[in-house]
Every structure is written in C-alpha cells, then in structure tokens.
Design goal:
Number of helices: 11
Helix content: 25-40%
Largest sheet: 8 strands, mixed
Number of strands: 14
Distance between the termini: 72 Å
CATH superfamily of the largest domain: Murein tetrapeptidase LD-carboxypeptidase, N-terminal domain
Oligomer: single chain
CATH class of the largest domain: Alpha Beta
Order of helices and strands: HHEHEHEHHEHEHEEEHEHEHEEEE
Shape: globular
Length: 348
Amino acid sequence: MSADERRQTRRDVLAALGTMAVLPIVASAAQVAPPLKQLPRPLQPGMTVAVVCPASGVMASEIRDFVALMNSWKINVTFGKNVNRRLSYLAAEDSARAQEFMDAVLDPSVDAIICGRGGYGVMRILPMLDFGAIQRSNKLIMGFSDITALLIAVEQLSGLVTYHGPVASSGFDAFTTSAMKSITYWDGKTATTPRPAFHGEAAETLVPGNARGRLTGGNLAMIVSTLGTRYEIDTTDSILFLEEISEEPYRVDRMLTQLWLAGKLQSCRGLMLGNFRDCEAKSASPLGPSPSLRAVLDDRIVALGIPAVYGMPFGHVRSKMTIPLGIRAELDAKARRLRLLDPPIDCK
C-alpha cells in the first residue's frame, strides 16, 4: 500500500469514528426498562419494628418518642444489639453493625427496620450486606442522612422500595407523624392504597414546570461519596431529591458540580431540594466573599432548565416528609407539590 493509500485509509477510519460518535446508542428494551419495584409490607397493628444502628450510635433514652408513637399505633419495638453502644463515631465495629442489620432482616419476628440515627458508617458495611436476603425479607427500611447510602443501595440492588424518613431518634411532631403514617401505615380497613401528595408551603420555585419520574435521592454528601462505586446513585429519568446540613456554599457548589460532572443532574427529569439547613457562609474566606446558597443553586440548578423547587420539608428539619425511593411521582415545581403516582406500600 502506497503512502497516499495509507493516508486515505486513515482518513476513512477517522471519518467513520466521527460518524459513530454522533450516532445514538440504541439499547434493547431489556436494557432500558426499569426493574420492577417490590413494595414492602406496610406497618400494621400487631407488627414488630426493629431499631438498628448501621451508622453512629444511639441510646435507648433518645428514642422514647418513637417507641411511644409505635405503641400508639399498637406496634411493638425491639432493639438491635448495638443500641446503647458507641465506638467513637460508630455504634460498633463494622462487622457487628452489619450483623445487627442482617439479623433484623432474617428474623421472622421482625416486620420492619428503622435506623436509630444517621451520623456516619453505613458506607463501611455495604459490602457485608446480603441484598438478595434483603429483597426476600420484603421489610420496610427507613432512615435519612447517612442512611441515604443504605436506602439507595437496597433500592437499586434488591429492587425493594425504601423510605427516606425519620430515624428513631428524630422528633415526631404532628407533620412528621402524619407524613410517615400516610406513607408507611395501613390499618387494613381501607380498600384503596394511599397515594399522598405533599405541598411545600414555604418552598420556592427555582424552575417552573412538571416532571414525572422515579423518586431517588437523600443526603447530598452521601450521594457524592458513593460515586464511582457499585452503590452510586442512578438518576436516569428520576425526580432527584437532595438535602444537606452545615456545609458552606462553596462545598455545596463542589458537590453539585461533581454530580453534574458525573452526568447525574442532566439525566434526571426534576429536582426537589430540601432546606439545606445551616448552609450559608459562616465566616470570611481568604479566597474572597462567599456567594449565598441561593446564588449557588441558581448557578448549578437553575441553569439545568428542568423543573426544580427549593425548601421542601425533608431531611435535617424538624417537620419532615417520608419519601419512598423507587416509585414514580410527579413534581409540580410551580405549585411546589409532590404527588405519588404509585402506591408507596403493598396493601394487598
């Protein structure tokens, strides 16, 4: 082959590669169809809820309100072995926390699992969990903050719907109690499965519009921390909800930018943000004046052009929604309302 022929062949190959780069990749139906989601059994009178500590520790004295609430619903509460234990910022050794969680999963006398508190530690035990057994148990699992990593991993790897809601050490005011009950509890008398809607009266519309998608999300720092791992969040065609606490605006910017660089923000259909409590600049920086949190959100979120709302009541706030991960919902950003399209629990 002559030099001219070799150059022409190279040009042909490069031209073909360029054509390939702009052609869409057509996936089969099996590749793009979302996995069927499995709804756990609802909380009902006579059931038993286990309080476990997969992250930081909690004392029994800190969950009295939760026990009283469950008793008022005629639900029994049992404590995992790591309640009343603390090992630095963890409840116990990794193996002990993983074992406590799996014991609750496998115990036939336990009907649902509520995490004692967030803090830190869930990421360390994820490789020790049996997601097949979790799926077969069909048990309701709930928590927030650090528990985000557990909720997303279970929902994505087992197909079991999980619940971003109060931990056992949360406060249970009227709103929190009512929201949790509307999502997780069934008295066995009503014929229809509840599909509640939540209105953020104090929320702000960032980008108006309506979006429908699968609910997923939780604590921003935890979601960013699992990127690049088996447990990273899948935001495809989702309504992504995010919340945070005690982070400077530049750190919120950094985490949102990381999600954007990973393609996670562009692939969702709508964004629902919590209050981002205590996330304004706390002191002057040698780098220069800090923008406000709202300025960061305008830059990182509004620029996406998808329906978005800020200030919905979930996460690190006193009065919080309970949000099921894995089911479809509709976000009306202008009305600041989230409406479930699928039942949040299995009432059959």
